[in-house]
Design goal:
L-2-Hydroxyisocaproate Dehydrogenase, Chain A, domain 2, 2 domains, three-stranded antiparallel beta sheet, about 20% strand
Length: about 300
């Protein structure tokens, strides 16, 4: 891609910008933030690391959303962060207003771009952006499942002592307490994880995965996770920029898959140069389906706040 814009130059946005630059996934990275000096300083700091990492990506910072112009992809990390004790839904009202401002300007200056939502609550904000733009669903998607799956894979590697390179995990559903870790599709070099861990230990890992973000938030107190989220965003951008056709769990608009419509959920999708190119519609077991429906119910409850 020629240009990727990241709106929100906080820790996630800055870390993502550095990852994209080092990987040379685009020619230019534009960082935008409301705080004058912050995006410009972050962009300059990253640019000055180029001789050490050997990248030619150009970075710029701005406080003007008009500088999204010409973007192939816009990544939204802007919004108020969670504080200890807050859920992702607690920041919905404020972050929704921020999102609408970004989307409205994007429609004017970058009408052909794709849109990747990272800000929380990501399921609701992805849906809201889709409705606001009227775009086809392949152009708008959210980051959640890649991060949740990465956390789960990390916990499995930590528990078993085996290389994380051999661990494949999958997490579906909403990005929150009702996420659905798919143990049936979680393996260590193709071998089901249940061959290595007891059911009790697997349940502990599932619960830790569901609270992965909150755990880091509670430990840091003054900030939330940013390295793992930025790495997850980078994996998605790589799939799009290099047309890798990767199957990754992402927040996508459902249109009949899993028996649902008019909702955004974390599901496995094919990511390529056209964005979200296909939803992988898995046949769920009875227990998995029950967990998935519980997650649907939670998301629809938050969706009601969009019209009230």
């Amino acid at each position: 891609m020629k240009k990727v814009t990241i709106v929100g130059a906080g820790r996630v946005g800055e870390s993502t910008a550095h990852n994209l630059a080092k990987s040379e996934l685009c020619r230019e990275v534009m960082l935008i933030d409301v705080k004058d000096g912050v995006p410009q300083g972050a962009a300059l700091d990253i640019q000055e690391s180029a001789p050490q990492f050997g990248f030619d990506t150009k970075l710029r910072g701005s406080v003007n959303l008009k500088d999204m112009a010409g973007s192939d992809l816009v990544i939204v990390t802007a919004g108020i962060p969670r504080k200890p004790g807050m859920s992702r839904s607690d920041v919905l009202d404020t972050n929704l207003g921020i999102l609408y401002g970004i989307v409205d300007e994007m429609l004017k200056v970058a009408p052909d771009a794709k849109l990747l939502i990272v800000s929380n609550p990501v399921d609701i904000l992805t849906y809201a952006a889709w409705k606001r733009t009227g775009w086809s669903r392949n152009r708008i998607f959210g980051m959640a499942g890649v991060l949740d799956s990465s956390r789960m894979a990390s916990f499995i590697a930590m528990e078993t002592g085996y290389s994380v390179k051999d661990v494949t995990a999958m997490v579906l559903g909403g990005h929150g307490d009702t996420m659905v870790p798919m143990i049936r599709f979680t393996c260590i070099n193709g071998i089901p994880v249940s061959e290595f861990l007891s059911l009790e230990k697997i349940e502990e890992i599932i619960e830790r995965t569901r609270g992965g973000g909150a755990e880091i938030l509670a430990l840091k107190q003054t900030g939330s996770a940013y390295d793992a989220p930025a790495a997850s965003v980078t994996a998605m951008v790589s799939a799009i920029s290099d047309d890798r056709k990767r199957i990754l769990p992402c927040v996508a608009v459902l249109d009949g898959e899993y028996g649902e419509k008019d909702i955004c959920m974390g599901v496995p999708v094919v990511l390529g140069e056209n964005g979200m190119e296909k939803v992988i519609d898995l046949e769920l077991t009875e227990n998995e389906s029950a967990e998935f429906k519980r997650s649907i119910k939670s998301i629809r409850a938050d969706m009601e706040r969009l019209t009230t």
